[in-house]
Amino acid sequence: MKQTLFVQLPPPRFSFEIPPTNIPLAAGFLIAALGRDPELTLKVDVLPPESVDVLGDKALCSDILRREPGIIAFSLYVWNVERSLFLASTIKRRSPGTIVLVGGPEVTPDNRWVLDHPAVDLAVFGEGESRITTLLGSTQKRAFTGVPGIAWKDPKRRLQVNTDSPEPWNLDACEYPYLDRRINPSPDGTLFLETMRGCPFRCKYCYYHKASCSLRFHSNERLDKVLDFVYSPESKIREMYLMDPTFNARKGFRRLLRSMARRRRRSEYPKLHTELRADLLESSDLPVLQKAGLASAEIGLQSTNQEALRAAGRKGDPEKIAVGVGLLKQIGVEVTTGIIVGLPRDTPRDFSRTLQWLNKKEAYSVVHPFVLSILPGTDFRANAEQLGLVYDPKPPYHIRSTPTFKSEKIQSALLECEQAFDMEMDYIAPPSLVDRGPEVLQSVEDGYYVSKWIVNPARETWRKDFLQVMEKASDPFTLWFKGEYHKEHMIEILTEFANTNPHAVVHVVLELQEPPPMDFFEAALASAGNPDLFLNRSYFPLCGEGEVVNINFCIIVPDTGNTAGKRAISRKYSSFATVIWDSPEYRRDLVTRLETPMLISWELESHDVTFKRGLNRLLKFHGSNHEEVLFRNPSHVRIWKRLASGWNTDWQFKESILQSI
């Protein structure tokens, strides 16, 4: 019997080496529910992180098809739905008999573009544990008529929908997934913990309270088993995220905190992260939060405009929130305060007042502004026309305008927020520029994947590796042109990559004998850029309509120390590329004048005293921008990250570098 393969694609990211926190907790619960039926002979598996979190579109499709699944179950979220459906379509073309099942927050009765998608055979609304056994056992006969809360395609590919509500699932009916290793924490030691389902609040921009219509809790006994696992001496859990919508609004949250604090004792880990209602905090909660290791908390202020809050179904007193945030900051908790741009009945002036209030009250450690998303299944989506809401019909469903917040003012509001809190919301860090060491492949056949391809475009030697690199490319991917400029070959390679791996992030590094002419960037974006990708749309309206961020250009230029010349180069390329200044040798007097982002190309051994002195001077003058200090030597990278940020690189993905030069 062919297997059912659960697939949860990660959010888009710009750094290959840092694994995404992509834990398929929902799939784990579904597989646990399937395990309750001893007569069920289905083979089930979850696509592992070394595949789903690493591979680009082409390689990922090939890996899934190699496993020959009879059913592929995709978990669809706003950040992965388009790529998931692209993969589903590609797989169905090559294996028409494969059944595609979808679930997750993007699967709602009103989100017809997902339900109508030609690759989708079967869709589940809300939690799926109560129906997964029936559905997987009925796929061959397609006998779904009596199953509540699903949609399916009949033999003539017509969409059928059953919106009846299923019975709520007993959360204690099966084992918690981590305990039998159905799923694992992420490679960096992060664990997601769900302690309840449902939400006591009814925010009109949120679907969660509708997906779980009642409040249900994992029992204390069940959670104690998970906590025993988390806090065991063998555990390598360093971060635990409580996935409850508002942790301190659940009954028994203090008992759960005390249980964590008792197990944690004097250990530094795991650190705890959660979402809280600051206005519900009491001063007596602080000692136990501190003992439990609370490191960060998300607080949903959203706005100080009471009329906008009422329109959004929000309750809460901003002044009490400010007091609660102050209490959390007193015990060293990093507080991320969320605010929303574009709420109905909010105006640009109201948004400015919210920013001013935040600054005055200092009710934040970090401010996180969100553009309002009109998500499927929400009250705002159902009443969008009545409320006069104009929004993007594709993910992330950003608001375009409201009767009180015109489209041109949304970008202005975000820029005002950047200025008010000295932040850069569209910052993209430069990629790794390691080009030597054990990560370099001897041939393309030696690598399970290729994360970086270094090419001399003027030489035809790259053609022998071309197709295999496209088929093994990772996501993100670095395409490094080194040597002589050859526009036609560079455009050819970049275009083929975009056609083969359309949803991937690609860093284009240009280390050429002369910086490229400006028309290269325009031609490259015209042939390979796709403004309609989710990642590119998610940066709108901060970035302009049609801008592309999934293709990033970096130019490596020797640092001559000529300040005027460097400024001229930076000005010339600033609209298209990041200029990275290459420092080929260590000179003590030049370290203070080096500019970031910089590339350290010193030919010094890691144990060399001169190298250590150079690193210390770099740390002194550039430690605040440590992510923009780059190295060609991988051992130098590891030392720098430990020195500058305490970062342990052992859990990072290993680069797989191919050189065709």
From TrEMBL:
Choose one Gene Ontology CC annotation of this protein and give it: cytosol
Annotated GO molecular function terms are: 4 iron, 4 sulfur cluster binding; catalytic activity; cobalamin binding; metal ion binding
Cofactor(s) recorded for this entry are:
[4Fe-4S] cluster
The alphabetized UniProt keywords are:
Iron, Iron-sulfur, Metal-binding, S-adenosyl-L-methionine
What SMART domains would the database entry show?
A: Elp3
UniProt xrefs under SUPFAM superfamilies: Radical SAM enzymes
Entry annotated with the keyword Phosphoprotein:
no
Q: List, for all copies, the residue spans of the domain called B12-binding.
A: 11-146
Instruction: Name the CDD domains on file.
Output: Radical_SAM, radical_SAM_B12_BD
Annotated Radical SAM core domain residues: 185-418
Per its UniProt record, what InterPro entries does this chain match?
BchE-like (IPR051198), Cobalamin-bd (IPR006158), Elp3/MiaA/NifB-like_rSAM (IPR006638), Methyltransferase_Class_B (IPR034466), rSAM (IPR007197), rSAM_horseshoe (IPR023404), rSAM_sf (IPR058240)
**Name of the featured protein:** Fe-S oxidoreductase
